User: Fold this.
Amino acid sequence: MQVSFGLMLGTELIFWKIRSYGKALIITTLTQSLGTFFVVSMVFALVFWIQKVPVYLAFAFGGIALATAPAPALSIVQEFRTHGPVTDTLLPMAVLDDIVGIAVFFTVNACIARAVSGGSVPLYMIPVMIFLPIGIGLVMGYPAGLYTFVYIAARAFGKYFGARFGATVTHMPKTVCRYLGLTLLPHSGVSLVFTGIICSVLQASEPKLAAIVQGTIAAAAVINEIIAVIAAKKGFELAGEIS
Assistant:
């Protein structure tokens, strides 16, 4: 999957697009990615603290949430031949966002692995675990309810306002400030891959926590993908980039 979408992005990504925005693109990528990680992690930390669920699980949700799957938005770009600042920003950002997402997620995954093992994972193994995914689990259904709603809402808030903040402070075009966040909402494919990896770490010692993650993300992936594709298309329309 990652190879196929690397090739697809490679055909669209033009280096002058990255150079033309430079620092603004990097800052906006960081604000929307790390902003989403922070918002989702903090919201779930509060929810889990109230419900007496281990708080470290909140960072698993944050690590899963920050990634963006560019394929749905990219399909809109290709189908409707969108053109403009939002399109030009989204394409290179999709690549940079994956880099940030992978780095943060596998760092969180390694820390959670150490936490659930009671410290039996030696420190020198953490860098290895960051770069070597330990497998993709099979996502099964689970009654998710509140967690699914919280996940979708917190992620959307982090993506939209993180992108808006970064684009505003770096003086990017107004359409980018207002609508880029809407095009960043899809992420089901990436979320399921990351969920499988996290659950494979939790399954042996904390199967109940693995079930929470599986159920929440499985339900969110279906619901969010419907909402996200509509929102992404609307973002391009409002930006005036669909012919």
